[in-house]
Structures are given as C-alpha cells and as structure tokens.
Amino acid sequence: MPLERRLSRDMFAPGELVELRQPCFTMGRFFEPGKYLVGELPDTAFEMGLVDKLPPVRGNSAEVQDTPEADQ
To answer: Which of 38, 43, 45, 56 gives a 20 to 30 Å CA spacing to 68?
Structure first.
C-alpha cells in the first residue's frame, strides 16, 4: 500500500510562495498548477498533498548574506 502524503497549511509561512503541482477543484473555483501564496490556496490542496515548497531563490533567501564584493 503506498504512503499517503498529507500536509497541512501550518507547515508553511502565511506569505510563503508554494507550487501547486496538479489541478485542484473546489466547489467555487478551479486552481491551475502554478505558483501561489499559501493563503490563496484552499485547505484541500494541502490535505491532498498537491502543494510543494519552492527551493530558496539566491538573493531572496534569509540564509543568503551579502558579501563585501557585492557592495562594490
């Protein structure tokens, strides 16, 4: 039996950009695959495991610090 991948919206920061990997249908809307803010997607997308974290973008991540060479 395959493992089921269940996620929660709580695993992501409220303003985090995530990727919806597959179409998500709700009673009121159709979400196409693409990049969305966590708050834009329904709980169903997270519960069904359709959402992935995006890798950090160099220069926009808090982990990447400015180097002295970049200031010159």
So the answer is: 56
Please, what is the Cα angle at 57 between 13 and 16, to 5 degrees? 15
Distances (CA, A) of 45 to 23, 34, 61: 9, 12, 25
**DSSP alpha helices (H): ranges in 1-72?**
43-47
Closest residue by Cα to residue 50 from 67, 37, 62, 33? 33
**Global pTM exceeds 0.85:** no
Integer distance in angstroms from the first to the last C-alpha of the chain? 57
pLDDT tier for residue 64 given thresholds of 50, 70 and 90: very low
